[in-house]
Amino acid sequence: MPIPGETVLLFAGFLAYHGKIGLLPAILTAIAGATLGDSLGFWLGRYGGTAFVNRFLRRIAWVAKRYDGAQKLFVKYGPWAVFTARFITGLRVFSGILAGVLQMPYWRFLLFNFTGAVAWAMTIGCVGFFFGSNWDRLARLLIQLDRFTLAVVGVGGVVLFLVYLFRRKKTC
């Protein structure tokens, strides 16, 4: 089950505050992981292109809609969308793929992706560190957010399954 990077990095900042790990290694690891992950997405988009998007991303309506919205932002803002996407859940998932599909030069993508990853990792890691003494409050807030997200995903999954069954029954 994927775990949001912010949650892991906030927790790493908390652990650093309490002296369990180093803050700098945690931030550097997050930067490396974010840069590498988005670079893999870039190459997937570059070589998989529109066929990949149509085959996998367009099958789920809400994913296709978010992808289309992200694509409009990328066309409008170019490499700045790569930098900003790091801070926006949902857009972050598509940033590398979109940059590859839209044939952004890799060096430009890497520059904006890396600087975005640095800013993101430093911000989130330091927030976790500085709020280390208030972790209980922050954890309760994140748990409520995670439960809400899980509930929305669960309800969405049930709705998609019911729509699938309804359409299947209609075609039979």
Describe the structure.
With 172 residues, this protein is mainly alpha-helical. The chain has 2 domains: 126 residues, no CATH class; 39 residues. The chain is built from 7 helices and no strands. The model has no long low-confidence stretch (mean pLDDT 83).
Secondary-structure topology with pairs:
Elements: H1 5-17, H2 23-57, H3 61-77, H4 79-85, H5 91-101, H6 106-130, H7 135-171
Features:
172 residues, mainly alpha, flat
Give the gist of this structure.
The protein has about 170 residues and is mainly α.
**Helical segment tally?**
7
Q: Please state the average pLDDT score.
A: 83
Strand content: under 5%
Instruction: Write down the overall geometry.
Output: flat
Structural class: mainly alpha
- Low-confidence blocks of residues: none
Q: Which H/E pattern describes the elements?
A: HHHHHHH
* Strand segment tally: 0
Radius of gyration: 19 Å
Distance between the termini: 34 Å
- Structural domain count: 2
Helix amount, in percent?
A: over 70%
